[in-house]
Amino acid sequence: MYNLLKGKKGIIFGALNEDSIAWKVAERAHEEGATFVLTNAPIAMRMGAINQLAKDTGSEIIPADATSMEDLENLVEKSMEVLGGKIDFVLHSIGMSINVRKGKHYTQSNYDFTHKGFDVSALSFHRVMNVLYNKKAMNDWGSIVALTYMAAQRVFPDYNDMADNKAYLESVARSFGYFFGRDHKVRVNTISQSPTPTTAGSGVKGFGGFLSYAEKMSPLGNATALECADYTISLFSDLTKKVTLQNLFHDGGFSNMGISDVIMEGFMDGEEE
Ligand SMILES: NC(=O)c1ccc[n+]([C@@H]2O[C@H](COP(=O)([O-])OP(=O)(O)OC[C@H]3O[C@@H](n4cnc5c(N)ncnc54)[C@H](O)[C@@H]3O)[C@@H](O)[C@H]2O)c1
Questions:
Q1: How far is the CA of 15 from the centre of ligand 1 (A)?
Q2: CB of 198 closer than 6 angstroms to any ligand 1 atom
Q3: Is 268 exposed, middle or buried (0-12, 13-18, 19+ CB in 10 A)?
Q4: What mean pLDDT is reported for the chain?
Q5: Which fold would CATH assign to domain 9-265?
């Protein structure tokens, strides 16, 4: 490993189990020399898997519901105590749609579900940055990253209201990122990741077929959770200090493709190749 995060302190949201992208980020951050606090919603902790990750990475766990300002304030204050100073990096790796979970079609949204999903998946990013900003909790040249998906730009019908949540999330990265950059030299970016087999990902209808489609469309194939973690580490490191306000595609090239040979083959019946 490269000691890319040696001496850096962080907060990592969203490690639910071994499949979680945040789990891989925590493992990689540890390998690169960082110390950090792990956090998740109190209800997600009941499964207990996070305890193993905390043990393996020498981290403390501080529960926080990302929709609660009180929880987030407590998290940021306690993290600075535990880590012995201000924060250098934060990962927001949180997503949940009740409309998706309950199989509600986009055209038949239950708006109570929509509100809740928006609060958890999108507004929470504003809340996290609000608390970090107002408590002056970030070190100069720190880095904040949230995870997103390309349904913010293009139509993927079964992604449902998560598409709208991601559009808001990406916009907040730019809007809050401006003030964070201007006032504290902190950069804020979103990583737009390939479909990835995790608990949140697999909840989307038709996920298996979609995963294969993206794999065949992308010249480099889908990016894995571990590869996403590697990219995230680079954004937390000092090697990317002037990258900010960006939505960065980490998808094997999928987002710039129109058609690939292998997808085309399925439509070439009877025609000369
Ligand atoms: N899996 C994919 O295909 C994919 C693709 C692109 C982007 N993403 C994004 O990556 C991020 C991480 O998701 P993942 O795929 O690792 O799945 P995951 O299910 O492992 O992670 C989602 C996390 O959100 C947490 N969460 C839910 N409600 C919360 C709350 N109120 N407060 C705090 N945390 C809460 C869950 O406990 C869980 O740890 C999400 O933003 C997701 O939208 C995933």
A1: 8
A2: yes
A3: exposed
A4: 96
A5: Rossmann fold (3.40.50)
